[in-house]
Design goal:
The structure holds two protein chains of two kinds. By secondary structure, chain A is an all-alpha fold. Chain A is built from eight helices and no strands. Chain A has helices spanning 4-11, 17-30, 36-46, 52-64, 69-112, 116-141, 148-163, 168-187. Chain A is flat, with a radius of gyration of 21 Å. Chain B has one domain (2-133). Chain B contains seven helices and no strands. The N and C termini of chain B lie far apart (45 Å). Classes of the chains: A mainly alpha, B mainly alpha. At the A-B interface, helix 2, helix 4, helix 5, helix 6 and helix 7 of A face helix 1, helix 2, helix 3, helix 4 and helix 5 of B.
């Protein structure tokens, strides 16, 4: 699957702007739920634009920066091969189909949200979406359970954002450096 | 026009703070859109979030959906640009300097330090959306079952959303 020879051969002919657009368009089309595994398969296994190592590396960068991982990935891959035009092609490809989908959903919501049956459907959808968020939060918290410093940060953030509903920018300015400092000290 | 400017300001600010992805800024989106601007009720916000989760692609399609709901096509374009452009510009710049700072020790410390921040924000998202969505015992059961299935099985998120929609529909006929 991850044939290094195939990867290096492909490196000689980087994808065109159009190919970058088409590649990410495919991810936007199919990616219901999690798009990251799909992005990896397209970039590493199908098209050999990136080696597994390059993918992990770029993902590390995309997770480090603000913004969604896959959105950042589409920009970073486009930028890497074709500069600004490639970056634009990547994000445009990724978001085109989902945006059209959202317009359809928005029209349907505006038209039918008054219907009592539809309201129940939306209530059920929202309840399920809440459940998915709880599941995700649990998966993120589990690895931190044995780290008192990390749990302190989680608790402070939770109190500030969920209970006191403080503005995010204030909370981030105080707690993000605090948390980085804690991890810096424990890392030494 | 005032609405478009407000959309642009809110989502530009959030674009630059979305460390750990979109779910981290969900409680702030809810606070601004529901509590500050009063564009939608908490229940409507939860419904829009759930709808956006049913769309393919990246997971923060609630942003253009809110823009569309509040100000039509101009709202959708403004909110999308505001949410995706600033963070994308940073990504573009970072790609060119990444080689220089990826192996620095402070990079790992910053990344490790942001992890509990993201976890705390996602936990806040879960509570904020749950409190706004769960308005009856039956909906609480739906939320609990979905959460359990997402943790203990490999069920697909869209399948679980569909389960919720069907569950809601069933109740409306009871």
């Amino acid at each position: 699957m991850d044939n290094p020879a195939a990867g290096s051969m492909q490196d000689l002919s980087p994808p065109s702007t159009r190919q970058i657009f088409a590649g990410f368009l495919g991810i936007g089309l199919m990616g219901f739920g999690g798009v990251l595994p799909l992005a990896r398969r397209m970039l590493v296994e199908d098209k050999h634009w990136l080696s597994p190592q390059e993918f992990s590396d770029l993902l590390g960068l995309c997770q480090f920066l603000p913004g969604g991982n896959v959105i950042n990935m589409s920009v970073a891959v486009g930028m890497k091969f074709r500069g600004w035009r490639g970056a634009f092609a990547g994000i445009l490809g990724l978001t085109a189909v989902p945006t059209a989908f959202v317009i359809v959903l928005g029209v349907l919501y505006d038209r039918y949200s008054g219907d009592p049956h539809v309201q129940h459907v939306f209530a059920g959808l929202a309840a399920a979406a809440a459940g998915l968020l709880i599941g995700m939060a649990w998966k993120m918290l589990k690895p931190l359970l044995k780290k008192p410093a990390a749990l302190l940060v989680v608790a402070l953030l939770f109190a500030a954002i969920a209970i006191f509903r403080l503005p995010l920018i204030l909370v981030m300015l105080v707690l993000a450096p605090f948390s980085v400092l804690l991890s810096w000290r424990s890392g030494r | 026009m005032a609405t478009l400017i407000a959309l642009a300001l809110i989502f530009t600010e959030l674009s630059l703070m979305a460390f750990g992805g979109g779910y981290a800024v969900l409680p702030e989106i809810q606070r601004r859109v529901v509590e500050v601007q009063h564009w939608v009720t908490p229940a409507e916000f939860s419904a829009l979030f759930a709808l956006a989760q049913a769309a393919p692609g990246p997971n923060m399609m609630i942003v253009p959906l809110i823009g569309w709901h509040v100000a039509g096509l101009p709202g959708l374009l403004v909110s999308s640009l505001a949410k995706f452009l600033p963070s994308s510009l940073i990504t573009c710049l970072a790609v060119s300097v990444w080689e220089r700072f990826r192996d620095r020790p402070w990079r790992a410390a910053v990344q490790a330090g942001l992890l509990p921040v993201t976890a705390g924000l996602v936990a806040s998202s879960a509570v904020v959306i749950t409190l706004a969505s769960v308005t009856s015992l039956w909906l609480a059961v739906l939320t609990g079952v979905t959460a359990a299935l997402s943790v203990f099985t490999r069920a697909h998120p869209v399948a679980l959303l569909a389960l919720g929609a069907v569950g809601g529909l069933v109740v409306s006929f009871v």
